[in-house]
Amino acid sequence: MIIGVGIDLVKVERIEKALRKWPDAFSLRVFTQGEIDYCISQKNSALSFAGRFAVKEAVMKAFGTGHSGGVKWTDAEVVRGDGGKPVVRLTGRLAELAAETGVREVFISFSHDAGYAVGQAILTGGTKKLEENI
Fold first, then answer.
1. Which 3 state secondary structure label does DSSP give 36?
2. CA atoms of 6 and 134, how far apart (whole Å)
3. Is 80 left (phi over 0), alpha (psi -120 to 50) or beta?
4. Which of 6, 72, 94, 110 has the fewest CB within 10 Å, making it most exposed?
């Protein structure tokens, strides 16, 4: 059963500017150290950061919280799963919400082109509605 769906579109330039203006403050507030290490190892790190940013936004939208109610940016970590497939690891308040609402799996996808990055998240699992728990 689908419990929630979220999508986000972000300008890569917006993320580039934030990384230049507040290199440590922005990256450490939004990304885990694992995400930072991965993104800076890429040829165009801004694309990698922007894609992960969009996925984090999409996950928070799927839960219906945005980054409020105790949810932190780092509560959703994008990692590489089997074969390089993107997977999101939930911690903190998002992990609590997943347990409360019966979310068993979070499907994510992201892409980038022409200066934009898009991220999508689909929550599946039990039968509790998110609105009942937020």
1. helix
2. 16
3. beta
4. 72
CB 12 within 8 A of CB 117: yes
CA 9 from centroid of its chain's CA atoms = 12
Q: What is the pTM of this model?
A: 0.91
- pLDDT, averaged per 10 consecutive residues of the chain (134 residues), comes to 96 96 94 97 95 98 90 96 94 96 96 95 80 52
Question: Which tokens sit at 1?
Answer: 């059963």
Question: Between vectors from CA 80 to CA 76 and to CA 84, what angle results, nearest 5°?
Answer: 150
CB 91 within 8 Å of CB 32: no
Q: Which long-range contacts (CB under 8 A, 24 or more apart) does 110-116 make?
A: 110/51, 110/52, 110/54, 110/55, 110/78, 110/86, 111/51, 112/12, 112/47, 112/50, 112/51, 115/11, 115/12, 115/13, 116/9, 116/10, 116/11, 116/12
3-class SS at 106? strand
